[in-house]
Write a structure and sequence with these properties.
The protein is an all-alpha fold and 223 residues long. The protein has helices at residues 2-9, 18-24, 30-43, 49-55, 61-74, 80-85, 93-102, 110-119, 123-128, 130-141, 146-159, 165-175, 178-186, 190-202. The chain is built from 14 helices and no strands. Helix 2 packs antiparallel against helix 3 and helix 4 packs antiparallel against helix 5.
Amino acid sequence: KSAAMALEDLKIKDSRAVNPLIAALKDEAYDIRKSAAAALGEIEDSRAVDPLITALKDKDYNVRCAAISALKNIGDKKAVKPLVAALTDRHVFRVITEALSALGWVPASDSDRIHLLVAKRNGNGLRENWAVTKKVLLNDIESNKYSPIENALFAFIGIGRDEIIPVLTDKINTKGTKIMAEAYLNCGNERLEEAARDWAARHGYTISKVQGFASITWGEWSK
């Protein structure tokens, strides 16, 4: 870990470190994987591009963030398509929008445009294109893929349109998770709070509001 961190922090751009750092991307410890990704970004060697693309699916969001920043530093356009695919990862929205901008990417489809607006937390843009926004995010919810579903649900909460509450209620009933229940419970909308409590009761959970819960409040993207 210390060696990987030194290569990252001291910005030692020595290509001899590339292969050992690539191997470290598979280490069991997330902080070693994170430091390895960051160090590869400092070295800026094209051999690291494919392993860093693989790291975009790492289970730890800190590692994913480091991999995104590293791909931005390396600047290989090969990373654009995988980065676009990762736009629905709500845990890395800041670094991924910066990386795609640095790589000169411009959204070419409705889906890409809406996902970019969501990643930028651009509530005004999402409301101005509400029909398209709703279509894209509802398609994400029906995708049966965890990350796009979670991202779409949090986006709807941030936008805060009452017409979408029945959809959100249905989704926690059919595809609910603890994270979803916590988000609903703490978002400030009474109807979603009730849906979260009902879901928790049916699944044997006891839940309570958490002051300062790192989530999103109803309609906060309209501010």
